UniProtKB/TrEMBL annotation:
Gene name linked to the record: coaBC
Its job: Catalyzes two sequential steps in the biosynthesis of coenzyme A. In the first step cysteine is conjugated to 4'-phosphopantothenate to form 4-phosphopantothenoylcysteine. In the second step the latter compound is decarboxylated to form 4'-phosphopantotheine. Catalyzes two steps in the biosynthesis of coenzyme A. In the first step cysteine is conjugated to 4'-phosphopantothenate to form 4-phosphopantothenoylcysteine, in the latter compound is decarboxylated to form 4'-phosphopantotheine.
Catalytic activity: N-[(R)-4-phosphopantothenoyl]-L-cysteine + H(+) = (R)-4'-phosphopantetheine + CO2; (R)-4'-phosphopantothenate + L-cysteine + CTP = N-[(R)-4-phosphopantothenoyl]-L-cysteine + CMP + diphosphate + H(+)
Protein's organism: Streptomyces cinereospinus
Domain DNA/pantothenate metabolism flavoprotein C-terminal as annotated: residue spans: 6-219
Transmembrane segments: none
Name of protein: Coenzyme A biosynthesis bifunctional protein CoaBC
Cofactor note: Binds 1 FMN per subunit.
Gene Ontology MF term list: phosphopantothenate--cysteine ligase activity; phosphopantothenoylcysteine decarboxylase activity
Cofactor: FMN; Mg(2+)
Domain of life: Bacteria
Family indicated by similarity: In the C-terminal section; belongs to the PPC synthetase family.
Binding site for CTP: 100, 110, 128-131, 148, 162, 166
Known pathway: Cofactor biosynthesis; coenzyme A biosynthesis; CoA from (R)-pantothenate: step 2/5; Cofactor biosynthesis; coenzyme A biosynthesis; CoA from (R)-pantothenate: step 3/5
Residues of the full protein shown: 180 to 401 of 401
Entry's EC annotation: 4.1.1.36, 6.3.2.5
Amino acid sequence: AVEPDLAGRHVVVSAGGTREPLDPVRFLGNRSSGKQGYALARTAAARGARVTLVAANTTGLPDPAGVDVVQAGTAGQLREAVLKAAADADAVVMAAAVADFRPAAYAAGKIKKRDGQEPEPLVLVRNPDILAEISADRARPGQVIVGFAAETDDVLANGRRKLERKGCDLLVVNEVGERKTFGSEQNEAVVLGADGSETPVPYGPKEALADTVWDLVAQRLA
Ligand code: PMT
């Protein structure tokens, strides 16, 4: 049996990858499937929490039982949904892969290729950093905020810098690649704490990493 150590708590989890539209048929996106975020939502619910799952483009994954699922397609929509749900949350875990940039312009009609003409350069603008924003401006005193860092190299050093920049309490650093972590059933990570702690999580099911995250969150809420 699972300890209901999150009973009476409201937790918010974001999952999946945002898509930033270019025109009605095209977008800039990423390889996140949402599996890690869904594992976090399922394990939190099993430990007694009320869970709001903000899901970005996670088609194919069934809604976890007993979890409130809010759909958000773009980074802007994900930000609105996370800010709203975080208002009364004890913890927020940002497992979603949020686009740092979006196309500066949205074309209302499909962008056409014209014979003999070079394509227009793609101009991007920055999206707001949701994790940094909710960490700097906590909706509640004592709210625990967890970020994820998807890195391809120099994983730990980059993770430590990212933790400081974002201002969250915990940062789950996982290595990603074309065939690593994204979409798979397994993950491997080190959870960095703002207190200097390092909790390695060996290669295994995404649920195991999720449970370690909730252990660390529950310790900080206690
Ligand atoms: O979905 P899966 O296929 O299971 O794969 C899981 C995963 C690899 C997507 C997941 O484990 C993961 O690492 N998620 C975070 C991916 C990411 O966007 O990393 P990042 O290093 O770009 O961002 C760092 C943190 O800032 C993240 O918590 C992200 O949610 C947050 N962020 C980023 C940009 C932005 N504009 N706002 C944000 O809040």
